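From the shared-data thread, chain only:
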Amino acid sequence: MDKDGVDDFVLSFRQKAPALVWYRQNPRGWSRYMIEKDYLTVEAGGAVYDIDGDGYPDIVFGADYQGDQLWWWRNPGGRYDPDVAWERHTIKRGGSHQHHDQIFGDFKGTGKPQLVFWNQGAKKLFVADVPSDPRHLDQWPNGGSLLRKRRRGSRKIRRGAGRDRHQWGRQDRPAGRQLLV
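Structure, as tokens:
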């Protein structure tokens, strides 16, 4: 998260505030930094990508079965304070609940990454282009759902997200333990 080359991790909590906490490694152990101070019903999963193009990785999480929103948090880019929350922005609101599993990759073959997310309530995989100015939008245009079903005979998968497992020149899209190609 801080580009120091040392692995850190983020934990989500959906039963009490704060909803997101970053554990930053230091020479004596771990320091705890609040990312989201409020109570949000955050689902398991999440993704990391430099959404706003400032060189620092931002994070994405979605609501669990109780909510219809998908959010991203802007990394403050070196100005880290353990007690100051990151800016939260909305990617999506409305529609079905429970946003499980997010990943960034060039799934459309455009040369630019998109956000792909599984909406468990809708039982659909959605793709959203990363907007050029995501900080100043009320929410992102979704871009519609990916409707291509897995090929007959392809195996159900649990991992391998965002890889070109078949070497067909495009990234595979896992969803609901199925592989969409």
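The chain has two domains: 9-147, 148-181.
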